[in-house]
Amino acid sequence: MNVFTRKVRGFRLLDLVFLGVLVLIIVGVYLAKTIAGGERAEIAKIDRQIDSEKQRIRLLDAEVAHLEQPGRIERLSVAYLGLEPVSAKREATVDQLVDLSRAGPPGKDKAPSPVAALVNGAGFLPGVPPPAPVEAAPVQLAQAKTAPIAPAVKQ
What we know:
By secondary structure, this protein is mainly alpha-helical. 54% of the residues lie in helices and 3% in strands. The protein has four helices and two strands. It has a two-stranded antiparallel ribbon. A hairpin with a 2-residue loop joins strand 1 (7-8) and strand 2 (11-12). The termini are far apart.
């Protein structure tokens, strides 16, 4: 008897081996499809997150474009910082640049602008009221409740 003709319970041994391999292939394909389906769902979830982030980026780009408008910045600088456009008499010519570079920057004790005042530690902006002081709420202490102690009973 050889492997090709040997019978086990009425089935050739070779047929049983092929049946076992077929069952293993079926189980393997089923598991591969199940795992691929889970990965497909994960990919779809990540794609939705990417789309959501792209939408958020577009929204933030639009907000930055609004905030960086020169007219808006000019209005805010005039309203809150008291800054104005530079007058022609404050502009330096090419010949004056050498003299200005030799003189060096202005001293830190004198702030030439409200922004420099903040940087140098003045702590307030001209024309802008300081924030209101925070009032602390009174602290109430909790009272401990004590239970009367019962006298010990002697037996």
